[in-house]
Automatic annotation (TrEMBL):
The chain crosses the membrane at residues 37-56, 68-90, 102-128, 149-174. Pfam families: STIMATE. This is LOC495070 protein. Residues 1-10 have a biased composition (Polar residues). The lineage of its organism: Eukaryota, Metazoa, Chordata, Craniata, Vertebrata. Residues 13-22 have a biased composition (Pro residues).
Amino acid sequence: MGTSNGSKSLTPGPSPPDPSPTAPGCGNGAMMGSFGIFLQGLLAVMAFSILMLKRLREPKHERRPWKIWFLDTSKQAIGMLFIHFANVYLSDLTGEDPCSIYLINFLLDATLGMLLIYIGVRVVSCIVEWRQWESLRFGEYGDPVQCKAWVGQCALYIVIMMFEKTAIVLVLLIPHLKEVAKVKPIKNPQLELATVMLIVPFLLMH
């Protein structure tokens, strides 16, 4: 009997439940992982292809020269890259699901952010006209084209992007928006990552 009781006391019991189970959703750093980088590269190729198709569909008499088109689109691309990587960075700072935070950021940028950018461009354009800074007029690069005009306009555009992103961050401080980030209808981390970094942005490109 003594031996039997001793054996029972050495028998391991059931493992205690994990006090902090991993919540569904993509984890910190997932967006800059190999799959995330692949999705971002694929999105960049798709975005460039759509821009090319839009240019080819424009009436020939309305098309900008290739050099002007490239300067305009590259300026906008730099601004969008700034916003994108700001969103990637911010998504890992909250402690919530990064994909959900990125998606909220992206949707705010695509709605309220576009309005703020429009206002910013209008305000900057008025200041440029008032000060007669000809090289800083958006879309005008001189004849012949001057690289410094493009650089100056890029700098102004990034300042506008910084203003827009700061305003969006302030909006994100609204408590109820953080609750939205806790809603995770997609349980598969890779599918969630593909949805927020490829599918949703692609749908909003049109």
